[in-house]
Amino acid sequence: MQNGTVLVTGANRGLGLEFARQYAADGWRVVACCRSPKDAPELKKIKADVHTLDVASQDSIQHLAKALHGTPVDVLINNAGLHGDRRMFGETDVALWKQIFEVNTIAPVQILTALLENVASSHHKKVVNISSKVGSIGDNPSGGSYAYRSSKTALNMAMANAAHELKARGITILLIHPGWVQTDMGGTDAPVSIEQSITGVRRIIDKATLAETGHFYDYTGKQLPW
Length: 226
Ligand SMILES: NC(=O)c1ccc[n+]([C@@H]2O[C@H](COP(=O)([O-])OP(=O)(O)OC[C@H]3O[C@@H](n4cnc5c(N)ncnc54)[C@H](OP(=O)(O)O)[C@@H]3O)[C@@H](O)[C@H]2O)c1
Known about the structure:
- By secondary structure, the protein is an alpha/beta fold.
- The chain has helices spanning 14-25, 41-44, 58-67, 94-114, 116-120, 146-166, 194-207, and strands spanning 5-9, 29-34, 49-52, 75-78, 126-130, 172-177, 215-218.
- It has a 7-stranded parallel sheet, sandwiched between helices.
- The longest helix is centred in the middle third of the chain and has 21 residues, at 94-114.
- NADP nicotinamide-adenine-dinucleotide phosphate binds at residues 9-10, 12-16, 34-36, 53-56, 79-82, 103, 130, 132, 177-178, 180-181, 183-186, 190.
């Protein structure tokens, strides 16, 4: 895929930082968004346009959209996410559940809404949502993590839905499980390295055409059950 502009949310650490690092190393223009750029020392080492974005804040999303007015965004990566809850049935904190939905489900849709013309006016027109296999109803062997699981299931539905509506504008929307990865969220027992995961996800982004819009893959390119 020819180089263009990629926008990544949650670019200060974990998978988001690696997206920024790899795309910048390949010569892409990187728009790296995070809550607190001044506290993102690793991001400062990367050639990127850094913007402040709290994905749970409508004001913050609108501020970003204004700053990027007229800038084509070839690949929009909704990466920022919150786990926050590994509790079992009956134990989930409702306020936390709402917060997790705001970050994992509502924010990606609001960001796509605010940046729709940026994506539609670009060459590649791709939207990548970092979902999770634990949001799969068809592949849930264990229970638990009610807020996180349901937030990713709802993200899958919202974006698979948008894929239908935005296909006519040539926009390809993907849902991708990055693997169980060695980040702050994944922990040190995770079997997949950050570099391995993002190399795999980028390969899927590269290859995806409008024919794949609305599909759910893992980082190896395997299609996952909803
Ligand atoms: N690691 C895994 O095994 C795994 C597996 C499946 C799916 N995922 C998904 O992959 C994505 C990245 O996860 P990760 O493993 O890199 O997690 P991480 O290391 O915990 O990083 C999470 C990122 O999301 C950002 N974030 C959280 N709330 C935000 C908000 N309100 N506004 C802006 N940014 C916010 C964090 O920023 P702050 O530093 O400001 O908090 C951080 O940059 C998430 O969507 C996650 O659900 C991860």
